[in-house]
Write a structure and sequence with these properties.
The structure is a homotetramer. Chain A is an alpha+beta fold. Chain A is built from eight helices and 15 strands. β8 of chain C pairs antiparallel with β8 of chain D.
Chain lengths: ~325, ~325, ~325, ~325
């Protein structure tokens, strides 16, 4: 099931950027959980386009409609939960030319290789960043459920176009002004009560594997690291090992957290820390070299339409959503 | 199934470092494939301990015994293939103390959190790097099958302890001399014929997700990146986008390969490139701070026994094995 | 994933009888298949209530709305296909009492055991026979795709309330007149071209296992048998074995078909035959003994509302749908 | 994964009848469970051939060797459990002719259709009834674990060759005397404490679906029914519905048990009852018509070697094993 993830809970994403609707189906969600719609919409609005001068102008209401999974009191009832968002502001004609001249950095060419003429490439189709909206519906609800269990998740942009702190926003604006875009790195921290130390499974269902699998399913992600990550490769064991200590209350902790809270794929009680690298938004307003698939010759493309100067910026709540979905899944496994 | 991976083909790893045997069960492997045992053993010997002054002295014959899956001509017959390696050189007493004083950087503490007193921690148990041996059996066979389809996979160490090229081996020796260890980065390249362009699935079963999931299941891995990876986060779209061109034979290629051959999670015909960051071997011959779980107080541990100064070095064939298993799985999906 | 089935193609059913909508999500459906909506609606109408004096009066338009998975030409595009049916004719008040006094033969009591007060029991909730409507959307499309590959599926009622042929319809009417209901047996035959002989997997993914798993997911099913089925248990090997013969064209067939076209779980070229036993519709208009869950004492219930006198009758297209979904899945596995 | 089953726990069977070994790999088995080897061997001996005049003479020690999953105290440790049985008494030459002239009622022909010349057909290969031995290892351990939770499982032969009670054993002997075989029906009852009422999942992971899926993976099974089963199809709703009553202790029960303890796929507190129909052993000592695959013409076959006159008889512990594996899986799902 290519558009699904999760071990106990199954999250399945559907939709194409310019189809009738996008949505998510969640099977084996916890039962008896009230959904706070206001809080959910607030979370979704963080991902929404058109929120600031740093994001695309596409205007989508992005109001989730719940089709199933709730009882009359809007409490999860054990049946699979399905929620969708209707697509309104679709401009298919914007994408007419990409069927022949694939956009560099996009999935147009590989979708054509795989699905041939049948692919729905409008706005990236099923490969579009817009598909992160239903992921955020699932994640937004998961965040509410986790909060009730005192698990807190928070992500932030720590780098954009090579710059950090205040400078990185200037870097985004500079790129945008030139019709260009920049990449970025999002860091996420998960804090959890001591009772969730020991969470995760050995080997390929471990917490790092599960998070990485879903993160690389988010469009534009090209790297994932935990704790010291690639930096750990530069260290010695005596530097990188997190030594254990016990406090007066008998709580065990580590003096450093190079492991990012994960040893052998299982939580050790320290905060979980991971970073995700996003490539620059491939859609830019600068002419680019491509090929004509029909004429089998070199061509040029100028991408019209709306796009974000830094996809990493809008991806912050998406990363939180991924972390929430995976954490909720793991605590649901017996 | 926590110790399994694969979408169509299922690879399941079993065993504990100092149990009776370690092994692999492979379901839905391609039928009609002859296994070249000599070539397989040659591949396995690359991972074997005791091969040089840079690796641990533990001496394991590591001869795979095939229990099922082959017909009388040693050709895969459609039944699940099971192969095991018996554990001989086990020294359980070396690990007696780790049940109480968990080793920093190892899974001892988290295994104890999860499995309590029942965990088999000897030599890392099911979390041991030794479990990569059966992974290499699967991968070694997969490499043979892929080679027949002209898919070639090759990994190498590109960085150790922050050093590159010849210097990195000196860095490893320096650390070893001090009873310390270093981390490292392994780069892997997958080359494939044009007909396998378009390989992979959308979203969470995409090639990057599948590779990352398995790579993070390899002990000591803390980071994975594709193509320009974390470097892409520093670039502008106009720099990072790989522009398309077509050659005289009608073959489409990209002028750069920042995507690492993967767009939208699907192969675009260019070589697949990814890098894996390994933390330093956590076992070092230097006293470390830890805690006594029984006495609930601070303690110290000095790890005896055998260990590698740079686990990334021995992991090179493991990375090739992972890449081979995942590629064979993907080309087996209809 | 409890409400899903399929090995390569994943079919996931969602919705509750009296929720907002019911629907199906299909991942990895074949690409490039045109959907004939008229033919699909004709198929769906066979399952629809209110078609004759033998079925319930509930009136549902049951028009599927396609949310995703099709391109602008209504051809499957590779993205997951989602279709839903809105629930209109819901009368929640009809079901107010069943939360306290569970209906005999229904899942009210077991849903309450599992989900406690959070269950949505209205009309059976997620356990309702109404959930077979989205199953029929998936199956109706699968039937179209299979027909293009010359695989034909046909089911019929062969027994009701112990009676056969014309008499069985009279038996249904008799029961209905008394506010009672009857069980029934549906037989299904799958005919396929020679090239699909050899279809299926060994052991637990075999064709019988896959069909049985899905069939027992259809409400009211209590038995499944293939070929001679329970009758085979009464035979001798010399009677039950289907002997092989070869015709002038080199086509191999069996002289009898007690195996129902399946040997070792794999098709042998002969028609696939299976029978499904349905219990009588549990909703009857006769007072029944039950208990009050709140008062913890014996009680009585008289079920109002609409129901079918023989659920097996309306299940005929459902059985065809199940067979089609499973067959399409199996021919999609490499 | 065709030779696996289970939702939370994964049971994977491997081996061919006349290969090196047969075995089972179990992932996510409960942790901290002591294995009573004596009791396990006693259970396995019930399935073993050569136990009476009613079973085949093949003599296999069938001693399970545990490769992984246990700690030094033979307690399950959380790592995947692998156990194997070596094949000793193999007589490959007995099966030389079946590669060309497939045995009626066996999987020889369909295995050839699927795997062509690569199939290992000796003694049925991976399709052999011998593969139920590792299933019984898993089931035997599961039975021990379930017993500790007061879940008891018991199966018996209730019909053979159409006869019941004492007569059925005579029927088996009669058939055996003529070199023939008979089919049979095995009934299984699962008794469990009240706290496991409410066990199972909705739709396709329901208890009936899970049991049926695995049961149809057992060689020679052609029918499965729960409670009144096919008999329910002959009843009226007023007869078949199990009415509820409550006793003085507040325990709810049903007055009849036509549902076999399962409503909506979920346990209702009453004993679980199901019946499995086995076809007659296809191997008989009577000449049968078949075809020569190489010469493409009609042929005859006389099967030498060892076989059971009634496979249902030896399948009794296999049915208990299946029930135990599935029940343990279900109670392990959160």
């Amino acid at each position: 099931m290519s558009s699904s993830f999760g071990i106990n809970i199954k999250y399945s994403i559907f939709g194409q950027s310019h189809g009738n609707a996008i949505g998510v189906l969640i099977d084996k969600f916890p039962v008896g959980e009230q959904i706070d719609f206001e809080e959910l919409n607030k979370f979704l609005s963080r991902r929404k386009p058109g929120q600031s001068d740093l994001t695309t102008k596409r205007n989508e209401a992005d109001e989730p409609i719940f089709l199933s999974g709730l009882n009359e009191q809007n409490i999860t009832c054990g049946a699979p939960l399905c929620a969708m968002i209707k697509n309104h502001d679709t401009r298919s004609q914007d994408y007419a030319n990409i069927y022949d001249t694939p956009r560099p950095g996009h999935a147009d060419y590989t979708a054509w290789l795989k699905y041939k003429g049948h692919a729905d490439l409008r706005g990236g189709g099923h490969f579009s960043g817009r598909l992160t909206a239903p992921l955020c519906i699932a994640g937004g609800i998961a965040l509410q459920i986790l909060k009730r269990r005192e698990i807190f998740i928070s992500a932030k942009l720590i780098e954009a176009g090579g710059a950090k702190d205040a400078l990185m926003f200037q870097t985004i604006r500079d790129a945008a002004a030139k019709g260009d875009s920049v990449g970025g790195v999002v860091e996420c921290v998960i804090d959890y009560p001591e009772k969730f130390a020991g969470l995760g499974e050995p080997m390929f269902d471990n917490l790092e594997s599960q998070l990485a699998k879903v993160l690389f399913g988010v469009p534009a992600v090209k790297g994932v690291e935990f704790g010291a990550g690639f930096g750990a490769a530069k260290l010695r064991g005596s530097q990188n090992n997190d030594e254990f200590r016990i406090d007066d209350n008998g709580k065990i902790h580590t003096l450093t957290n190079n492991s990012g809270g994960i040893l052998g794929g299982i939580t050790n009680g320290m905060p979980i820390i991971f970073r995700t690298a996003f490539k620059p938004t491939p859609s830019i307003s600068i002419p680019q070299k491509t090929v004509s698939l029909s004429e089998k010759k070199d061509a040029e493309i100028l991408i019209h339409g709306r796009h974000d100067p830094c996809v990493a910026l809008r991806a912050i709540p998406v990363i939180e959503a991924v972390a929430a979905c995976v954490m909720l899944d793991l605590i649901s496994i017996s």
